[in-house]
Write a structure and sequence with these properties.
Largest sheet: 6 strands, mixed
Radius of gyration: 19 Å
Strand content: 15-25%
CATH superfamily of the domain at 3-52 and 133-273: Thymidylate synthase/dCMP hydroxymethylase domain
Shape: globular
Number of helices: 8
Order of helices and strands: HEEHHHHHEEEHEHEE
């Protein structure tokens, strides 16, 4: 089934079968326990069409992930505002009151967040601990033993949670190579389905594309395992509008550059073609 249709069906299922749930943000959700998405990359790039997704922000964010950037300003300077509201809780302890939100907005350091763990997984409380560059290890394995079933990257580092701007929502991804095709699956503990999930789908689709290019493999399947899959109650009207829209043909992407290495990739090297989405739908974010 088309990824756009799967996504709309998921929104509808949450509205019809989800259960009311309170959470830390102060804005309640309607939530399901568990959902699954899959997409064959040969059917097009999974940039949803029932509302416009700002692909530049997706690309900039992923470049920051790959490089292990922890400065909020780095993203902002490239036109990506995804992480504006968060910061290292050691610098500004989390709170959803307006005064704390303003302080969090001004603090630049994102701490030992998701992608820092991709590139430097260690125990920050133990100076003698081993530092692991998980991304580099996966790239080396793709070259030396692509049949390996242990190409896993974890952003969930219990010893570093207290120094992360946000404990990872999408906390683990794995690649597997079958019959010359690179497949990628990710696991997500918490899913803001209207706002975050479209970005997550596109981001991991782009990561799959870049890894396959790096390793000289074909692009296979993108798979998402989702746990607390929710919508916020103040997003319902916007979701109902989106559910009236029919999916359109998926776009394609192309990456050019002097190097195929994902470590040398710059977001400007990847372009999207044939993207003809419906208009944007503004939705509130709960911090």
């Amino acid at each position: 089934m088309n990824i756009d249709r799967q996504y709309l069906d998921l929104l509808k299922r949450i509205l019809e079968h989800g259960e009311h749930k309170e959470n830390r943000t102060g804005t309640d959700t309607i939530a399901l326990a568990g959902a699954f998405l899959e997409h064959d990359m040969s059917e097009g790039f999974p940039l949803l069409t029932t509302k416009k997704i700002p692909f530049k922000s997706v690309r900039v964010e992923l470049e920051g992930f790959i490089k292990g950037i922890r400065s909020k300003k780095w993203f902002q300077e490239r036109g990506c505002s995804i992480w504006d509201e968060w910061c290292n809780p050691r610098k500004v302890p989390y709170g959803n009151d307006e005064t704390t939100k303003e302080k969090m907005l001004k603090e630049d350091d994102l701490g030992l967040i998701y992608w820092v763990q991709w590139r430097d997984f260690s125990d920050p409380h133990s100076p003698e601990s081993t530092h692991v560059d998980q991304l580099k290890e996966i790239l080396a394995t793709l070259t030396s033993n692509p049949n390996d079933r242990r190409m896993i990257c974890s952003a969930w580092n219990p010893s570093a949670i207290d120094q992360m701007a946000l404990p990872p929502c999408h906390l683990l991804w794995q690649v597997t190579v079958i019959n010359g095709k690179l497949n990628l699956a990710w696991y997500q503990r918490s899913v803001d389905t209207p706002l975050g999930l479209p970005f997550n789908i596109a981001s991991y689709g782009l990561l799959l594309h870049l890894l396959a290019r790096h390793a000289g493999l074909k692009e296979g399947r993108l798979i998402g395992f989702l746990m607390d899959t929710h919508i916020y109650v103040n997003q319902i009207d916007a979701i109902k509008e989106q559910l009236t829209r029919e999916p359109r043909k998926l776009p394609h992407i192309e990456t050019c550059g002097p190097s195929a290495s994902i470590l040398d990739w710059d977001y400007t090297a990847t372009k999207v073609a044939g993207y003809n989405p419906h208009s944007s739908i503004k939705m509130p974010i709960a911090v």
